[in-house]
Amino acid sequence: xxxxxxxxxxxxxxxxxxxxxxxxxxxxxxxxxxxxxxxxxxxxxxxxxxxxxxxxxxxxxxxxxxxxxxxxxxxxxxxxxxxxxxxxxxxxxxxxxxxxxxxxxxxxxxxxxxxxxxxxxxxxxxxxxxxxxxxxxxxxxxxxxxxxxxxxxxxxxxxxxxxxxxxxx
Amino acid sequence: xxxxxxxxxxxxxxxxxxxxxxxxxxxxxxxxxxxxxxxxxxxxxxxxxxxxxxxxxxxxxxxxxxxxxxxxxxxxxxxxxxxxxxxxxxxxxxxxxxxxxxxxxxxxxxxxxxxxxxxxxxxxxxxx
Lengths: 169, 128
Description:
heterodimer, A: alpha+beta, Thiol Ester Dehydrase, Chain A, six-stranded antiparallel sheet, 2 helices, 6 strands, 17% helix, 36% strand, globular, B: mainly alpha, Non-ribosomal Peptide Synthetase Peptidyl Carrier Protein, Chain A, 2 domains, two-stranded antiparallel sheet, 4 helices, 2 strands, 42% helix
């Protein structure tokens, strides 16, 4: 599960909306470098924004893949928008809420919000918006051929879906 | 809806989808060469056109697929006369003049100007 940036799916409305959460932990290696202490500056561990884009890509990607029974190889093709207003330190939960805007044979567009949840109070704060575009690899316009096997939705994703109680079909 | 109004909406869509400035988008702008559009941007543009104009754009309608891969249509990097005829029939919104005398497949993308997009939408809106 080295590259899973969501921990659990908490809501799925097929082909419409998927909500997933990730708990940010001090045990994550990358937080010790992002950002490490420097001259005259204490360490400031915060979840990298780039990995929150990946978290949203996984959230929205599962939503798009699920809509087609995971038959399509769903690839992140474009980050149309990514805005963040606040940081997420360890000990907080990130909630990714992804919605399908449009879907067609060659791909899909999604919009999404990122919230930071404080487990101490349960309060949720909107901290970002991420809109994405996904391409169905086998339907691409260049006509390029890819392996039959769906390498996008591998074992890591299947485990996550199973653990979250989502039927894979 | 007038052609001018369609152009205005198309321009807003391109500014949004391609992160270009409004004044960069003229009727003569080539989507790839002038505005930096890549293949995935075309899908983005199709989605946005559908939403903004309430039209349906089936795959291959705006940009025909399977032409470049067909040996009947493309030979030695050039589009065959049959291929040219097919493209013309399937893309009435595109102006082929100038390209036709040296129909390189690599230059087909440059035929997609903002004007061709506006013409495409105009026909779709009229057929609604």
